[in-house]
Amino acid sequence: MAGPEALSSRDSQSLGKVPPHSLEAEEALLGSALLSRDAVSRLMEEVRPADFYSPSNQTVYEAMKGLFDTGKPIDTVTVSELIFKDSKNSKSINASYIARLVDNVPSSANFERYIEIVLEHSHRRKLLKASGRIELLAMAMDKEIHSVLDEAEQTIFTASDDAIGDGLVGVNDVLEGAIERIEEIENRGTGLSGLPTYFSDLDYYLSGLQEGNLVVLASRPSMGKSSLGLNIATNVSKEGKVVAFFSLEMTKEELVQRVLFSEAKVTSGDARKGQLGPEKWSRVVEAASKVNSLPLYFDDAPVITVTDIRAKSRRLKSSKGLDLIIVDYLQLMQSSSGDNRQQEIAEISRNLKNLARELRVPILALSQLNRAAEAREDKRPRLG
């Protein structure tokens, strides 16, 4: 009888069964990624070659990863070119197959669901492979039963690790890092544990913007939320920190102009009327040279979801780094869940908090207070 180690090549297919898989989901996943650079970033973080059942799909994925890792454009042409540089690939895959991946995408909006389907089938195949190994272990009569049980348990743990993520962690595993973090804060000498906004009162109350935290900064309409958010973004980027600013109210040009006028200490009214004059114009030119190199990135998509912010932020973090995300403002974001707008805002806030933890950066979400506060007896403000 073959030893247990021989199981690595034995799966349910060798027993006459077809392992769980969905070629449709695999192809839709790859096709969606070929249509969107943001989708590629998500694909590379969540999926591995072995998660694809089809060898052809594994080959396409690996070509896309090669292009992604070197910062090259990813489309049907560049992927095909890279694949067919290796002549052996032409025997198992052709250019029409790669083009078909794009043509047959039912809806790229379902990209996240395609990932879930592909990973679910991958986890099931791993469990089937593990069960086959355990079967061989149980039949290995020359092995002590305690050794068999230990190996069987480890096999199941290994197969399930990817599906359930990190488990419980003991204090001793975390303590050293926690002490190092406390020591780092102490050595800063700034009195702040988080990212400074350079607004002293705000930094005093928050101790800076904390990694992994969502901070909601709310006010009544037309009270200067956007200006404050832009000032914080500019202050942080001046220290060499990378900031992503998502605005659902203003265009990129308007945002840059505001940064420029603030730095030059001129009013936007004078600029709009063409009444800057030589002295103020000189200050604007000087300010432009200063802000030109700031690591400050704007997105002005008028409709955006947390999924969109996640994809764009992941891409920025991968290419440039990322230290702070600012969203202006919460109530203009889109959500597909919730029976009413209040539930939608709560869902958006939860997802932004999860994103902050996932990317390990602070997120500052500007928010608008409901005008109806004065009409209520308790006068307590609510996000509207």
Brief characterization of the structure:
The chain is α/β, with parallel strands linked by helices.
Q: Keywords for this structure?
A:
alpha/beta; five-stranded parallel β-sheet; 15 helices; 5 strands; disordered N terminus
Looking at the structure, the CATH topology of the largest domain is: Rossmann fold
- Give the helix level as a range of percent: 40-55%
The CATH C-level class name of the largest domain: Alpha Beta
CATH superfamily of the largest domain: P-loop containing nucleotide triphosphate hydrolases
Instruction: Please compute the radius of gyration using only Cα atoms.
Output: 27 Å
Order of helices and strands: HHHHHHHHHEHEHHHEHEHE
Number of E-state strands:
5
Number of domains: 2
Low-confidence stretches: 1-15
Query: Major sheet: order of its strands?
Result: 1-5-4-2-3
Mean pLDDT: 83
Q: Please give the largest β-sheet.
A: 5 strands, parallel
Characterization of this structure:
It is a single chain. The chain is about 55% helix and about 5% strand. It has a five-stranded parallel beta sheet with strand order 1-5-4-2-3, sandwiched between helices. The chain folds into two domains: about 5-165, DNAb Helicase, Chain A (Orthogonal Bundle); about 210-375, P-loop containing nucleotide triphosphate hydrolases (Rossmann fold), CATH 3.40.50. With about 375 residues, the chain is α/β, with parallel strands linked by helices. Mean pLDDT is about 85; it is low at about 1-15. Helix 1 (about 25-35) crosses helix 2, helix 2 (about 35-45) packs across helix 14 and helix 11 packs across helix 13 (about 275-290). The chain has 15 helices and five strands.
